[in-house]
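Q: Hi! New to this. If I give you a protein sequence and the SMILES for flavin-adenine dinucleotide, can you show me the bound structure?
A: Yes, paste them in.
Q: Okay, here:
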Amino acid sequence: MAKTSSPAGAADRHDILILGGGLVGASLAIALGQAGLRVALIDRDTPADQVQDRFDGRGSAVSLASKRVLVGLGVWDAIAEKGPILDIRVSDGPSRLHLHYDHRTVGDEPMGWIIENRFLRRALHKIVAQTPNVDWLAPARSTGFERGPGWVGLTLEDGRSLRAPLLVGAEGRSSPTRDWAGISVRRVEYHQTGIVCAVEHEKPHQGIAHERFLPIGPLALLPLEHPNRSSVVWTEDPAKVPGFLALSDEDFAYEIERRFGPWLGKMRMVGPRWNYPLTALMANRFYGDRIVLAGDSAHGVHPIAGQGVNLGWRDVAALAELLVEAARTGTDLGSPALLARYEAWRKPDCVGMLIATDGLNRLFATDFPPVRLARDVGLAVVNRIEPLKRVLIRQAMGVLGNQPKLVRGERV
Ligand SMILES: Cc1cc2nc3c(=O)[nH]c(=O)nc-3n(C[C@H](O)[C@H](O)[C@H](O)COP(=O)(O)OP(=O)(O)OC[C@H]3O[C@@H](n4cnc5c(N)ncnc54)[C@H](O)[C@@H]3O)c2cc1C
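A: Thanks. Here is the predicted structure of the protein with flavin-adenine dinucleotide bound:
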């Protein structure tokens, strides 16, 4: 149940306004609220709808760095189901050359966890509702932005007006905050659709995440907590998607099985199917005059490596650390110098991930024989170089580079 703010009338004053209460916005509200900042978290959707099984079929690959953030916020233990990723197997169509990552290469912990977004949202909503200092306004629509000396404001459809020194845009890829601030974005259209569903398979997945590259794009089978269930991301040509979505459950499961190969045996569908057009975007700036962007409103990457929300949680960790430090020292929370530090901290990681995922998608999308041969040899070579594999695994776990406190397992 969403909490409500004070009645209509004079502007409600907060330390931070967050527009968009998705995986990123809700996490940021918890981090700031727990540190004593007064936060308004505004989402256009009804919380009860967002946690329905039919709302979002995606499972997210949650890295070790993101786990640490969620543990730090007290969210991790509230997540009902999490499937550990013990190994990753990357293969290229019918080629027998492949790349195998084993979690024991870097330690005892899993390389990540596959968690269905509905379970992530339920846990986040539970903790938001328990966090002091957070006014959770949902469903609520903002009808306009305003700015005055030392403050930025939002008006809501019900006439309420909210003000704070800083507004965080966390509304995902279509961000009214970003548009209002006049921040432009660069977009990449992949002309691919991600079909998402869950399947039950005859043989146990043994914690192995499979990424199988096919000419149209990758097919991923990601291990859920149930030993015989996986979350599927099937990349397809958009023109063919309506035909596949219209198939019976049996025929649809057969299409996945046919593309995937024999490793997990016979498959059957569990629950419905969803589809998402695949695009990438990068905001030219991550901040403007008393506004800052976090999560997909700042950067969206191809899901080929399952890194989108992991980048968003690293934004949360960095932004929360800078804002809490500023609040403790009495610094203006909307100061350009502070927001520039956030951008300098986060943008290189996000741009690097966009380039890497974009390059991977393009490299594996070509069927030109010399390129195929080179990339298959490349997979086999990387497979034999243990130090390189260790670096790549740590990169995917999000634990390389200058990490914020929450990612290091410390409190902000
Ligand atoms: C097929 C697919 C598979 C993926 N798999 C993975 C994966 O395995 N691992 C991974 O890390 N990432 C993955 N991603 C990416 C991940 O889903 C996104 O990065 C993540 O959802 C971004 O979270 P967010 O909170 O920034 O934005 P969103 O999830 O888009 O949330 C935005 C929130 O803002 C609200 N909102 C929107 N507009 C307004 C408004 N005007 N006013 C108020 N509220 C508003 C919405 O209701 C929503 O609650 C995948 C993406 C796709 C498409």
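A: Confidence is low (pLDDT under 50) at residues 1-8. Let me know if you'd like me to explain how to read the tokens.
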